[in-house]
Amino acid sequence: MRNLPDPRETYNLPLSFEELVPHWYSGTGPRPDDQWGDSERLPWSIAPSWRWSECRLAKIWFVPEDVPDHKGNWEHLASRIDEIYAGFKELGFDVEIYQGGSSDELIEMLHGPADYRFIAAHGEEPSSDPFDDDGIRAIDRHVSWVEIEENIGATGLLYMESCWSFNAICRDEEGEEYPFHHGLAQAGCSAAILSHGVGYGWPGEIKTGGGFEIERMLWLLERCLEAGLRRAMEGYRDGYESMLGTDAPIMVDHDVAVGDPDWGISG
Predict the structure, then answer these.
(1) Domain count for the chain
(2) Which of 241, 237, 244, 211 lies closest to 85, judged by CA?
């Protein structure tokens, strides 16, 4: 079993974890409770059933370059494609990687079924303007939260490394508001890990030579397959609290889980 990667032991970054912590901002205060659902509770009870594929499939899309009005990107993933393939293969998954960062690639990645999807792009802070639904930023345009839920196929676990994805509000054709994650449930997404407020990635290299973010992603997935999403999130938070003490919230408090608490051992 993998160990949780330690951000204090990462390399190839201009500043250390300890130097960066004072400058990071969690966004919207304390992390809310995870929003667990089941087949008997709305909106999860009306969602199409998801079942494991015969050959488990993971789909990954990320933005590899800077986009307007945002700092940072996921170029570090583009330089570790072989590592991503190898890590998911070890866990029994075939992988489709979309590394161009375009909106067309995102829509293509969302189409069709997948047991696991990972999206890494900057998310826009929700606005009080009822006509403002910028969603996330691809390299060529914004893709709205509604567009994401309208295009996503049946999904086991969606992991969105996009700010505000948990807080996002959508509006239906009658103008009624509903949480983005409720729309995901209705679209057939069994579970998701979303960002509460502003989230942070850590693109460093760990002692083994692997990428920190890749190891963190694989640790969570491996733990889900062993014990389910709820226990995976508990172990993830407890592990970093034990490791980092009072600095742990900056690593874990933006991640909020929704949906099936047993994803990974259910379906």
Answers:
(1) 1
(2) 211
Give which of 143, 119, 116, 139 is closest to 61, Cα–Cα: 119
How far apart CA 262 and CA 128 sit, in angstroms, is 35
Q: Give the pair of three-digit tokens for residue 207.
A: 């002692």
The reply to whether 31 falls in a domain is no
- Domain span including residue 194: 7-24+36-259
Q: What does the pLDDT read at residue 44?
A: 67
What is the structure's pLDDT at 14?
67
Three-state secondary-structure class, residue 157: strand
Domain of 151, CATH number, reads 3.40.50
Q: Which residue from 122, 109, 201 is spatially nearest to 155, judged by alpha carbons? A: 109
Please tell me the distance from the alpha carbon of residue 228 to that of residue 12, in angstroms, as a whole number: 33
pLDDT of residue 130 exceeding 60, the answer is no
Residue 265: phi, psi to the nearest 5? -115, 0
Cis peptide before 68 (omega within 30 of 0): no
In angstroms, the Cα distances linking 173 to 12, 36, 144 are 48, 27, 15
Q: Is the pLDDT of residue 45 over 70?
A: no
Cis check: omega of the bond before 203, within 30 degrees of 0: no
Label residue 156 by pLDDT band (50, 70, 90): very high
Mean pLDDT of 181-196: 94
- Smallest CA-to-CA distance from 63 within 138, 134, 123 is with 138
Mean per-residue pLDDT of the chain: 90
Count of Cβ atoms closer than 10 Å to residue 248 Cβ: 16
